[in-house]
Every structure is written in structure tokens, then in C-alpha cells.
Design goal:
This protein is about 35% helix and about 15% strand. It has about 60 residues and is of the alpha+beta class. A 3-stranded antiparallel β-sheet has the order 1-2-3. A hairpin with a 5-residue loop joins strand 1 (about 15) and strand 2 (about 20-25). The chain is elongated. The two termini are about 20 Å apart.
Amino acid sequence: MAKMKTKKSAAKRFRVRPGGTVKRGQAFKRHILTKKTTKNKRHLRGAVQVHEADARSVRSMMPYA
């Protein structure tokens, strides 16, 4: 039987943590940063967990993660 393929776009955007949760980068931090406040940009740092409603679809895109 053929191997299942990983969606490469999902593999570049998400990582699966050892506990099984999926982490993602924050949106709204790439461009047009001059009109955003320093506090807003500071809160957009780091990675956050994918919402439970979306985690199942992310895991199906990455079958071997």
C-alpha cells in the first residue's frame, strides 16, 4: 500500500509537541507593523497552541507527526 503524504504547507506551519498538542506561529506579525502598538506586537511573540476545533484537521494533514 502507498504511504500517506504529508501536506508540506502544514508541515512548514505547524509542529507537534511531545504531549500531542499542535503549536503554531502568531498571525499579524509580518508586515504593516508601524501602525500596531508595541504592546500588541509584544503579545504576538512566540508560539501558541492550535485551537481544539482545528487540531483534528491539522493532524490529518500531518499523518506521521
